[in-house]
Design a protein that fits this description.
The structure is a single chain. Helices cover about 40% and strands about 15% of the residues. By secondary structure, it is an alpha/beta fold. It has a 7-stranded parallel β-sheet, with helices on both faces. Strand 1, helix 1 and strand 2 form a beta-alpha-beta unit.
């Protein structure tokens, strides 16, 4: 029996969704029949269709949309799908309702820790809904969070990591000319951070760490992403002894080329992260990660083996890590190489395809 899976997700941004999208291409190649329902202008449509995946150019625009529910339900009835896999809030809320009374197995995706509580009534509209058969979690910390909930079947949540492929990064080369244009000299020791600035990202703690570094070292900090000046970040930069060596690049389309030119990738997250894609990309490029010891990061970075792990909300720890790696370039290079090997070995796309295929087979049995 060929297992038929209907996936509802947003594939408009090619780079950010690549691990997820390539998973379903791998599953199609492994003999499953994948149908993807996504926005009709999604960047990945041509790639899906070239792989033999049927694409439906539709995605729910609102939560609990009666039109969307009817469209999804009609596809479930006529398509004979064994599994419905839902990847975002609008897909989940409408997809669960569309599956009512139908024999399809409902699977949800979760890539974030926290904000799920058995005593929250709204949780039963999505992840704790009795119609849900499985929840795929990208980190063991997320799976453990679900298993702590009362009135929740402990085997519903399973850990399946987002897989990466080394070949995605083979053509990425460091763009030092772009760094020079930003104001970063060729001989700088570069610490890069890629994030859309939100409280959970802990960017102020990275900025505060610059106050604790030995003055006048050739260490530069490059912050890439939206809203990096928000909150008190601008004030922290202006008052930092390294203010001339902190660069805000905003949104960039050449992020990986800039990251590839860095010595260290720092992400000072305070909570909520799982296995962060930006960290995995930096590791895949051989850049040493410095991350905090929140649950998802602990699965990705092994302290002093595949990177450096510090306490969250600790400018002192961040400064000490950057200084140590600056002073010991050989250690920094070894950790970067080990980080690349760690992702290739423990977070491979091939393994993710195998594990997801096994889950679908169990559900369809």
């Amino acid at each position: 029996m060929k297992i038929k899976v209907l996936v509802i997700s947003d594939y408009r941004d090619t780079n950010s969704v690549r691990p997820e999208a390539e998973l379903f291409i791998g599953l199609q190649q492994a003999g499953l029949e994948i149908t993807v329902m996504t926005f009709d202008q999604a960047a990945y449509i041509q790639r899906f269709e070239a792989a033999g995946i049927r694409v439906i150019g539709f995605h729910p625009e609102r939560k609990l949309d009666l039109v969307a529910i009817r469209i999804i339900r009609q596809e479930l009835r006529t398509g004979g799908h064994h599994v419905l896999h839902l990847f975002n809030s609008r897909a989940i809320l409408n997809g669960i309702q569309a599956a009512r009374g139908l024999p399809v197995k409902v699977v949800l995706y979760r890539g974030y820790t926290g904000h799920i509580h058995w005593y929250d009534p709204t949780a039963y509209l999505k992840y704790l809904h009795p119609r849900v058969d499985k929840i795929t979690c990208i980190a063991e910390a997320i799976t453990a969070m679900f298993r702590r909930q009362l009135f929740f079947k402990k085997n519903k949540a399973v850990t399946i990591h987002k897989g990466h492929s080394p070949r995605w990064y083979e053509g990425i080369v460091p763009d030092r000319r772009a760094l020079t244009a930003i104001g970063i000299p060729p001989d700088a020791f570069l610490v890069v951070c890629v994030a859309n600035n939100r409280r959970m990202k802990g960017i102020p703690w990275l900025l505060k760490s610059t106050y604790l570094l030995t003055p006048c070292l050739p260490i530069h900090f490059l912050l890439i992403g939206k809203n990096m000046e928000a909150g008190n970040n601008r004030q922290l930069i202006e008052q930092s002894p390294y203010r001339g060596q902190i660069h805000l690049a905003g949104f960039r389309t050449d992020v990986l080329n800039l990251v590839a030119a860095a010595n260290v990738f720092a992400l000072p997250s305070l909570y909520g992260e799982a296995t962060t894609k930006a960290v995995m990309e930096a590791m895949s490029l051989g850049v040493t990660p410095v991350v905090t010891s929140i649950p998802g990061n602990r699965e990705l970075v092994i302290h002093q083996q595949s990177g450096w792990v510090v306490l969250p909300a600790s400018a002192e720890d961040l400064a000490a890590a950057v200084l140590r790696l600056y002073q010991d370039r050989a250690l920094c290079q070894r950790l970067g190489a080990a980080a690349k090997a760690h992702v290739a070995t423990h977070f491979s796309l091939t393994d993710t395809v195998v594990n997801m295929k096994r889950l679908y087979e169990e559900l369809a049995d």
